[in-house]
Amino acid sequence: MSSDPPKKGQWRVYLLMWLLINTTLWSAAILYLKKAKPTYISEWALILPGTGPGVSVNLPEIGQASSSSSSAFGGASSDPRANYQFIATSEAVLGRAATQMNLSIEEFGKPRVKLLDNTTIMTFQVTGSTPEQTQQKSRMMYQALVQRLSELRVEELGRRDEGVQATMKAAQSKLHQAQKRLSEYKVSSGLSFQGQVDNLSVNVEQLRRQRSETLAKRQQTGTRLAELAANIGITPEQAAKAFVLQADQQFQQNLKDYSESSASLVVLLSKWGENHPNVVKEQARQQAAQIAIAQRSTELLKQEVDPQLLEFLQLGANDQGAGRSSLFRDLITTQVEYEGFNAEVQSLEQQINQLDDRLSGLAQRQSTLENLKRDVQTAEAVFASTLARIDLSKSDIFTAYPLTQLIAEPSLPTSPSTPKKSLVYLGAGLGSVLSGAALTLLAMRKRLLMLYQNRKKQLPASSPEQTAL
User: Fold this and answer.
1) Contact 245, 386 (CB under 8 A)
2) Can you tell me the distance from the alpha carbon of 442 to that of 207, in angstroms, rounded to the nearest whole number?
3) Does the residue 189 lie in any domain?
């Protein structure tokens, strides 16, 4: 059987079909270009800068407070740009921007946000019906995004401030308690000024040095007193008693009476016998004076005066003992000096003992006072550093929401993004080619089928072995 080419009538039919299809296709394309509203795209970009410089504040006599902004891109699992992408497409931002444009959120539309890899840049694409409207929508959206980020930063800072306020109140309470304990202890301890213990210690050392000097003077005076007592012929104890008796006027009067009576009795005995009335009278006078001396010495010395001392006192009272009296005066003067030094030593020792006791108590209280002062200083340092950290943290408002910077202003589109005439024409042309090819294949399908069948018949029959196989 031979294959006949399609008849002319069939070709005309397919040609008319192709023309009809092309007419419809191109008419639709032209109508689309005329009726479709143009869409414009405005592009702009943001960058998120890195970490800002840290801040360090030195507090005199307290310490140091520092604040540094941690990088928002430090974590590998989080990218703040993704957060910003969500915020930029949220209803809060889109609604605010749409309100500024007197549009609804649906009319405003969602922007297309793209995050550039290995950078901190975000690109935005906003669509509109006119170039000016598209650019204005981009600007309104940027302003709405900035305002929303500012609101979120203020809210985050407020929540952060709530946490640090509790810490600050606790530090302030500890400071007040430490200051109160210090003030109360100052009142109760008697420590009225700084360095009181040091001044008291200096006073004690001065008294000890003065006591050492006085002891040396007393020793020198005691040595001289012993020498004078040896020259006079009495002991230092007798000299001390003589000093007491010599200073008493009544005893001196009794001693004078006794000496005069003894002298008169010697004269009378040289003239008359013991039974003579004048001798008896003078003896009675002598005994009365002696009794008075014994009574007065007992009152002064708590014991009777010994004969040797009485003889010494008698010699000192006579004009014949003028030289010895001079030595006795020196002895008395030296004894006075010795007693003065001795009293001064005792007074100094008493003062030293009192100051030592007071110093010991003040030293213990001073140690407690220093501990309380350190507590106050520590509380002041903690409170001051807490205040400094709060002030520094308030200045760092970009921790949770990093700073943004507009690196590309919203562009003013010069040509619509849709519809694109070149793509429409290319699509229509491609449709014409494809429809023509399809109709050609449809017209030649019978011829192709006949060629296929003839070729199949011309192939040799298969052998039984091949069939078995």
Assistant:
1) no
2) 136
3) no
